[in-house]
Amino acid sequence: MKSTLTLGAVLIAGASQAGIITQWDFNGTSSSTVPGGVSSPTASIGLGTASLLGVTGSFSSGVANGGSSDPVTTSPPNFGWQTTGYAAQGTENGQRGVQFAVSTVGFEDIMVSFDVRKSNTSSRFTRFDYSANGGTTWTEGALLDGNAGDTWFNLNLNDLSADSGVDNNANFVFRMVAVFDPNIVVAGQYSASNSSSSYATTGTLRWDMVTVSGTEAVPEPATMAVLAGLGLAAARRRKK
């Protein structure tokens, strides 16, 4: 009986541990061998779907210009998912970038982090958006002010733990998109990441270490009662 109760306690305690659900590191032995290819790279940990939003993709060094937070410090195999072909000046605010779909079933306290390298002529501002219904409706999240060109901005953390709608959700989707500068006098314009440059559609945003993490959901009281009952029943059978 003692061993049965101990096992049950271990199972319940283990169910509350935090960890990575899905992660993309975009690594490969060469840029042409990154799993999944440029249109929809395969997750390196867990499962999920990555897609391009109105831009074109390629794989470039994840260590250039200071490098991403990837612990691998050589390229290859450390690559980032580079995107270009962003919207013309004054158009398609928040529509072009990258998108990821990840099931959070069995997890709560969801967090999303990522690294991005912004070239001189890329959009200074990008925004993290997320959806609990597969992209039918979106919640606008944090703005990232990338006020420096040819620079990696690492470990951008988006804490969604206060939104229970994304917990235990098979339809969780998020995106990172280029957006207009909210600070300029003439509204509806992109600003360049480097203040000495002008915004251009050929500017690049290079993404790396896109990570979805969470805490494994603790069973509901009714479920815990069932588990406890099963443990007691097993103990009684062993006594007979």
Written account of the structure:
It is a single chain. The protein is mostly beta strands and 240 residues long. It has one domain: Sandwich (Jelly Rolls), CATH 2.60.120. The chain has helices spanning 2-14, 221-239; strands at residues 18-24, 49-53, 56-61, 79-84, 97-101, 107-118, 125-131, 139-145, 151-159, 173-179, 205-216. The strands form 2 sheets. Strands 1, 3, 4, 6, 9 and 11 form a 6-stranded antiparallel beta sheet that branches. A hairpin with a 7-residue loop joins strand 7 and strand 8 (139-145).
Sum this structure up briefly:
The protein has 2 helices and 11 strands, in the order H-E-E-E-E-E-E-E-E-E-E-E-H. With 240 residues, it is mostly beta strands.
Query: Can you summarize the main beta sheet?
Result: 6 strands, antiparallel
Shape: globular
Q: What is the CATH first-level class name?
A: Mainly Beta
Uncertain stretches of 5 or more adjacent residues: 1-15, 222-228
Helix content range: 10-25%
Q: Please report the distance between the alpha carbons of the first and last residues.
A: 12 Å
Q: What is the alpha-carbon Rg in Å?
A: 22 Å
Average per-residue pLDDT, rounded, comes to 89
Please identify the structural class as seen in this structure: mainly beta
Strand content: 25-35%
Q: Determine the CATH superfamily.
A: Galactose-binding domain-like
Number of DSSP-assigned strands: 11
Task: Predict the CATH topology.
Answer: Jelly Rolls
- The CATH architecture can be given as Sandwich
The succession of helices and strands, N to C, reads HEEEEEEEEEEEH
